[in-house]
Amino acid sequence: MDKQQHVQAIVVGAGAGGGVAAKVLATAGMQTVLFERGGWPVYDAHINDELISQRMQVLDSAFGPDWKKHPRVYVGPDGSRTTIHAGDGSYNHVAACVGSGTVSYGAMAWRFMQEDFRLKSIYGEVEGSTLDDWPISYDDLEPYYEQAEWEVGVAGNDSLNPFAPPRRRPHPMPAFEYNRDGRYLADVCQRMGLHPFPIPMLRNSVPYNGRAACIRNRTCCGYACPVDAKNGTQNTVIPVAMATGRCEVRTGCVVAELLTDDAGRVAGVRYFDPEGRAQTQTADVVVVAGSATETARLLLNSRSRLHPNGLGNNHDCVGRNLQGHAYTGASGLFDWDILDLTGPGATMAICDYNHHNPGIVGGGLLANEFYMLPYAFSQSRPWGEARWGKAHKDYQRQNYYRLGRLLGPIQEMPMWDARVTVDPAVKDHWGIPVVALSGSRHPRDFEHCRFLSARAEEILRQAGAVRTWRHTGDTPPASFYGPSGGQHQAGTCRMGNRPETSVTDAWCRVHEVENLFIADGSVLVTNGGFNPVLTIMALAYRTAEYIAKHFR
Q: 3-class DSSP state for residue 295?
């Protein structure tokens, strides 16, 4: 086994959190190695093939992971174990490349609301849930939201959103204009007394930071950007880190284990290089940013004399409280063409139902949606419509431009038994035990979905849809796979003040290991009624700043 030259910091995972952390550490003067299991994304290698897009993954994943090398296991309610792959829906939107999900995401750039950090205080105990407050407040995170918006790049305008949390500085770029369905639905919402506003986006509405403005491409969410106007860590903070000369990006490297010394501190990592050779890399501090599923897996696979159950897991908290987002809302068919296919697709949102709804804990936003290509559109029709033959083709031809949608993520309730473990028998290509997903969603989640979908359907009917149907989040495959192991995964290494109920402290440092930090969605106590990527970035800025101050 080869051993590399010692460095000050290791970051595992080059996604939203890992890319930010590497930039902060390298610019602070720390020699850093950034590990990524995938390669650098190349738009021209895949272009806009819907069947391998990160949103569909019918035949493959344009930006990884390799299905055959990275299986997972689903544990059913009866204890049965089924090996699953990306095409089964368990990897929806997950990527394995430099930038990870920020290469192909929809790029909505939401700040969580002030209430999102205090759900238990506001709503009280929820039976069957581990709902809790965060150990930090919105005010603690606000400066880092601002830093993410300006360094990575966000287009937006909060002036029309009365529910937006306070900010010290506006967005650095003007908001995107509404497309046809966004403009029409915004007018309808205003007539209903609601408060539509443009969606904040991690993409350039004007040239910014040396890269072009968005060209309004209709193939956006699930795809890389052909003009590099979508802002991910691969084209913003990671190049800045590399330019310092203190950040080495090692691609095609799979980290198998975190190594510890005799005192129980992290000493480095054991990994497999692109040729499959086992290697070690030592460091003073390690930041894990592999995603809520892969980070929990890495900690659980890192066992030693002082950590027999895995790193940070002496209280059996690692892997617990897995959350995603049950997307809910409604679709409506119009008797006129409501779509103009002006990208990025989603442009308008409302937050009127995100909190303070009677009988609902939290809530969620509603937005017009990213465009579907023909295969995805064929899966979107209401129950009872033909799925093949002439009737199917007629539906496709007549309604492609006439389908309006309002959808959003409901704030799921964290649950102790919704979790990630490692499978005792199934291993990946490198012989590493794989992720096993188990548990289910809380019954309240489906109540929340029914509430929000009813509001969405009401808006579409007021807009003149001649036929509507709801998406309530409780139909297969969502309920079959239980908690989400795909997009927006969170919670498995939640932050908190008590080691008995959390994995990290308020600085995202693992309670039991003083030089091990986490910088991804794992640390989120609750997942908000929003896409969480800007919150992950903000937390990574805050955590890495703390590391640079104390470990440099």
A: helix
Using alpha carbons only, what angle is made at residue 129 by residues 126 and 133, rounded to the nearest 5 degrees?
A: 75
Question: Taking the chain, what is the end-to-end CA distance rounded to the nearest angstrom?
Answer: 28
Bond from prior residue into 207 cis (ω within 30 degrees of 0): no
Say whether pTM exceeds 0.70. Answer: yes
For the chain, give every domain's residue range: 2-170+226-325+414-441+483-551
Q: Are 378 and 396 in contact (CB under 8 A)?
A: yes
Closest CA to 455 of 530, 346, 349, 532: 349
Give the tokens for residue 334.
């119009």
Which residue type occupies 405?
R
Backbone Cα Rg of the chain: 22
- Identify the CATH homologous superfamily for domain 2-170+226-325+414-441+483-551: FAD/NAD(P)-binding domain (3.50.50.60)
Say how many C-beta atoms besides its own lie within 10 A of residue 47's C-beta.
12
Least confident among 45-49, 71-75, 367-371: 45-49
Contact 212, 167 (CB under 8 A): no
Tell me the pLDDT band of 478, cut-offs 50, 70 and 90. very low
Range picked from 76-90, 373-387, 494-508 for highest mean pLDDT: 494-508
Question: Per the structure block, which two tokens stand in for 547?
Answer: 């590391």
CA separation (Å) from 193 to 136, 242, 459? 34, 49, 11
User: How does the average pLDDT of the chain come out, rounded?
Assistant: 94
